[in-house]
Amino acid sequence: MKILLTGANGYIGMRLLPKLLDMGHQIVCAVRDEKRLSVDTKTRSKIDIVEIDFLDEPEKQKVPADIDAAYYLIHSMTSSVTDFDEKEAQAAKNFNAILENTQCKQVIYLSGIVNDKKLSKHLSSRKNVEEILYKGPFDLTVLRAGIIVGSGSSSFEIIRDLCEKLPVMITPKWVLTKTQPIAIRDVIQFLTEVLGNKDTYDQSFDIGGPDILTYKDMLHGYAKVRGFKNWIFTVPVMTPKLSSYWLYFVTSTSYKLAMNLVDSMKMEVVAQDNRLQEMLGIETHTYEEAIDLAFKKIEQNLVISSWKDSIASGQIKEDLENYIQVPKYGVLQDKKSIRIKDEDVVLENIWRIGGDNGWYYGNWLWKIRGFMDKLVGGPGLRRGRTHPDKIFPGDALDFWRVLLADKKSKRLLLFAEMRTPGEAWLEFKIEDGVLYQTATFRPKGLLGRLYWYSVLPFHLFIFGNMIRNIAKG
């Protein structure tokens, strides 16, 4: 079967892609930027790629006419707190128009469980997208899920941050709201088994795990799996805005996502229709099993995807191509170089930079800079990195975004997404036995120049020691 996979570089898409390939399907990945598709060379050779931004005017000729089915995995919740619902509606309408000239028989849409008549903006948008897709020239299968638990998922990372950092929590009353979490591997199983199943055409199904829990239960359940205790006290006075700031400063989530999540957490999300589980004979995992499975993936360095690699989690609002050419004029630079003995070892050191491995010198200073960035609304160091020794263009790397990661040319280029009065790049390059490290800053006005010269004393010993430590074999 020939399948169009939208959102192929997203959290769900990256988990679904290898499963579909293992099943023998021919996959066409729809992404905004082909260079951001974080797959290895072997996987890339097995797929076709089309570059489409579903918010732009429909380009019908880009999608092969002979596709048999499609997965709709597009959403904009992390990019805005005001107009994401309008963007999601427009994307769905454009998707319908694009598929008019294809032979697509089935579209599978992963949505959210809708219980209450008065829905959050997030869930209301998902329901509206569902209604738009039902008008498309294909049979639609809708899977409505609640909290998805898996390594790298936003829900898992938020719970993990809260529990690991705060043994005692003062929480808003929405932690008493009921929800029905589901393991990511169960979601993938549902998504693959409804493919081509005519009994699921033009129907919507709820999917969930076996446990109905409050968010408080989930926090306690996480602590139990990890082998420690936590204490949670609820207060009725925490406003949605205060709750959002609380999540933003304590966890790795962005403020925009925190706002939208808090809005949704007030709504009960429990599966009311379990027909699909019975139809397909799927045995779902408990919440504690899902947490345990997530940690097994983390411990084995097998985390395939993370919500934090989304472009929307940072400051870049355009294609990476617009930043990949480091400017030469009107910039301030810190250039350093050092001769090295073993290029391969040094290259591996570069590829492990950031995240838990740190920045090779003055990690406490990097943490202070990250904390200061978070105070003014930047990402700080909250995002870390998805893989300990693999980097792909578009990945988040602490408060940097990877623009170029080319091991053949031995070059890594990062763009700063921290809040600064200007634009900053950090480049590592190996040529003829020499490691070059260049920090480039393009200031915005006088404030930008004052900022550069104020941090220059720190650069002198941080960057100097950093390159020396990276160069060590």
Automatic annotation (TrEMBL):
Pfam families the record matches: DUF2867, NAD_binding_10
Keyword line: Membrane, Transmembrane, Transmembrane helix
Domain NAD(P)-binding: 7-146
Transmembrane regions: 450-467
Domain of life: Bacteria
Cross-referenced SUPFAM superfamilies: NAD(P)-binding Rossmann-fold domains
PANTHER family: NADH DEHYDROGENASE [UBIQUINONE] 1 ALPHA SUBCOMPLEX SUBUNIT 9, MITOCHONDRIAL, NADH-UBIQUINONE OXIDOREDUCTASE 39 KDA SUBUNIT-RELATED
Name of the molecule in the record: SDR family oxidoreductase
Biological source species: Flagellimonas halotolerans
